[in-house]
């Protein structure tokens, strides 16, 4: 069984205070894009994980394969149903690692969904979302097609329902900087403490930001979307990692309608008015040593109806990565 495991882009990310469990409350509009990994699943005698790389450094993957989110997803389902589910997993990686695009979480969600089908477990999407929340804050959003609103620490997700929306053209650029997510969140808290900003954003109501962004996405208007996007983590990330800010400035100089940080970084997203404009942006001299891709947003249900879509432009800067193959004994 073959699955498309898409990357995500947070088009808005409002961060509230620290919760009792240590996480921050989030309110985010998240869309899936045509850049993604391929995940292949097959019943086997023992669980196996094979990683292949087309565009990214596999050296950044955890050495202990049991820590890989895809394998942890299998273990979680085994716990849920009370039996072994030995599965051969092969993942062809195209999503940059640690860049704020959710590649690991997407793989985990894809394995949850795929193993559920492969072994005929009959678990509902709602239950898979609950299990996904145990693996990571943004795993659940990948279990719903299209654009979603994510709240809480990421476990509360709901479709925004944009079935007829025109695809939005985006460019994604990563200069290789590693941005520590905990460090970026701590910097945000420190900035707010210094500024005396206790209230931050009111995340208890719907908020105009979501409605404005929803309407702009439905129309597919790049300028309107560019005016509506924001990320509370952008300022602290730029302060900690000046090279990421330089990448954002290069995208602006290259002609993007709008630019924002993806998650906690280091990937930066540029909004363009067409795929052709995206190609011209990525030809900018300041971006030539970066990992970069020109992509489009995925409409609701597109993966189920049509399978994966091919990115318009994909530039490889890390080549010749070895295949990583591990056989995992059942617990």
Based on the model shown, name its key terms.
disordered C terminus; alpha+beta; five-stranded antiparallel β-sheet; 331 residues; Ribosomal Protein S5, domain 2; 2 domains; eight-stranded mixed β-sheet; globular; single chain; 32% helix; Alpha-Beta Plaits
Describe the structure.
The protein has 331 residues and is α+β, with helices and mostly antiparallel strands. The chain has two domains: 2-163 and 321-328, Ribosomal Protein S5, domain 2; 169-315, 2-Layer Sandwich (Alpha-Beta Plaits). Helix content is 32%, strand content 27%. It has ten helices and 13 strands. Strands 1, 2, 3, 4, 5, 6, 8 and 13 form an eight-stranded mixed beta sheet that branches. Helix 1 (69-81) packs parallel to helix 2 (103-118), helix 4 packs across helix 7 and helix 5 packs antiparallel against helix 6 (222-228).
Topology, element by element:
Blueprint (H helix, E strand, L loop, with lengths): L1 E17 L5 E20 L3 E7 L15 H13 L5 E7 L9 H16 L6 H11 L12 E5 L3 E4 L9 E6 L6 H15 L12 H12 L2 H7 L1 E2 L2 H7 L1 H13 L3 E4 L6 E5 L2 H8 L8 E6 L5 H5 L6 E3 L8 E5 L3
Parallel strand pairs: 1-8, 3-4
Antiparallel strand pairs: 1-2, 2-4, 2-5, 3-13, 5-6, 7-10, 7-11, 9-10, 11-12
Helix pairs in contact: 1-2, 2-3, 4-7, 5-6, 7-8
* DSSP E strands, number: 13
CATH top level of the largest domain is Alpha Beta
Largest sheet: 8 strands, mixed
Structurally, how many domains make up the residues?
2
Short description:
The strands form two sheets. Strands 1, 2, 3, 4, 5, 6, 8 and 13 form an eight-stranded mixed beta sheet that branches. The chain contains ten helices and 13 strands. It has 331 residues and is of the alpha+beta class.
């Amino acid at each position: 069984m073959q699955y498309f495991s898409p990357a995500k882009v947070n088009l808005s990310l409002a961060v509230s205070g620290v919760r009792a469990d240590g996480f921050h409350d989030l309110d985010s509009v998240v869309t899936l894009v045509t850049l993604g990994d391929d995940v292949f699943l097959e019943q086997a005698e023992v669980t196996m994980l094979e990683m292949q790389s087309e565009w990214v450094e596999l050296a950044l993957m955890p050495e202990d394969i049991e820590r890989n989110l895809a394998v942890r997803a299998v273990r979680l389902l085994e716990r849920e149903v009370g039996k072994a589910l030995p599965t051969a997993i092969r993942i062809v990686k195209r999503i940059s690692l640690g860049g704020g695009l959710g590649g690991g979480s997407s793989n985990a969600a894809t394995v949850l969904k795929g193993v559920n089908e492969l072994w005929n477990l009959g678990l509902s999407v709602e239950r898979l979302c609950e299990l996904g929340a145990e693996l990571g804050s943004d795993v659940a959003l990948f279990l719903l097609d299209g654009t979603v609103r994510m709240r809480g620490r990421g476990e509360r997700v709901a479709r925004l329902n944009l079935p007829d929306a025109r695809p939005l053209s985006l460019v994604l650029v990563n200069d290789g900087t590693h941005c520590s997510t905990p460090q970026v969140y701590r910097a945000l808290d420190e900035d707010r403490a210094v500024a005396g900003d206790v209230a931050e954003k009111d995340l208890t109501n719907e908020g105009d930001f979501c409605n404005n962004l929803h309407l702009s996405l439905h129309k597919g208007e790049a300028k309107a979307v560019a005016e509506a996007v924001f990320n509370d983590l952008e300022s602290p990330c730029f302060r900690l990692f000046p090279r990421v800010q330089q990448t954002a400035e290069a995208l602006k100089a290259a002609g993007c309608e709008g630019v924002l940080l993806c998650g906690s970084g280091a990937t930066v997203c540029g909004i363009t008015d067409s795929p052709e404009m995206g190609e011209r942006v990525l030809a900018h001299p300041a971006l030539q040593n970066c990992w970069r891709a020109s992509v489009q947003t995925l409409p609701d249900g597109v993966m189920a109806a049509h399978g994966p879509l091919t990115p318009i432009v994909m530039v490889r800067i890390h080549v010749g990565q070895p295949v990583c193959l591990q056989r995992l004994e059942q617990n």
